Fold this sequence. Notes:
Blueprint: H1 2-21, E1 25-30, H2 32-37, H3 39-51, E2 54-59, H4 62-69, E3 76-79, H5 82-90, E4 98-109, H6 123-133, E5 137-139, H7 145-157, E6 166-168, H8 176-186, E7 190-193, H9 194-200, E8 207-210, E9 217-224, H10 235-246, H11 251-257, H12 260-263, E10 269-270, H13 273-278
Parallel strand pairs: 1-2, 1-3, 5-6
Antiparallel strand pairs: 3-9, 4-7, 4-8, 4-9, 4-10
Helix pairs in contact: 1-4, 6-7
Amino acid sequence: MLNVLRLCLTVLLLTSSLAQAQEKFLLMAGTIGPIDAGIVAALEERFELESGIRVRHVGAGTGEALKIAEKGHIDLVMVHAKSLEEKFVAAGFGTERIPFMYNDFVIVGPAADPAGIRGMKSATSALKQLAATGAPFISRGDNSGTHVAEKELWQKSGITPIGSWYRIFDKGSEGNLPTLTYTDQQQAYTVIDRATYLSLKNAIKLQLLVEGDEALLNRISLIPVNPGKFPRINAIDTATYVAWLCAPDKGQKVVAEFGKEKYGAPLFFPDSREWRGAHPR
């Protein structure tokens, strides 16, 4: 609750500052992974250059981002937890879930891999083996999109993770980067998004052990906050930004190219309806 209050205060300060600075602006609450990866800032900068509309963001886990939006302090959310998103829209706080981009989660762990999960094709089977061996596992435990995805994987595996081997990181709400760093320090296992792992790969000893399962896909959505519930929402500029983000030759092109130069491969993949229409599989 304290984290939400702090974020709301940050949002209010940003809103006040931007309102005094210029008229055309909007504020987004974004899940921390894409922010840490740098793609959110890259999209905002390109959009402002092309449109003159200024976008700023506050980072929070999906659960906290949606709570901020429920207070009407922001115009748009970028999140990645389908079950929480659907509840948010059903309650009338958001207008619709709009597919935007995706990457995937991976399971990482110590190079020695004492649980023996390396190369397993099923994420749920890997989690079952981690539980059976009592291998140390670190969870964000903060109801973020990453934590929700992890919980759904445990549920699919039929395992309720309890015991001294399953640990909640007390600073998990700060994001995936500190969670992965802590997991490395503990030489434990965790579920993390690929972009975060790649960004820290050369600074940690943990290795990517399980990947490629469709259950590990991490789909990221845009949800405009409902102006019918909050009349002060900047619905016009938000709609302009969402359309730009989803356009194959605009935001989706930025997504498709982001990370290639630094990592040799993109960190995220386009997933808008417009992109899929222009690039049928």
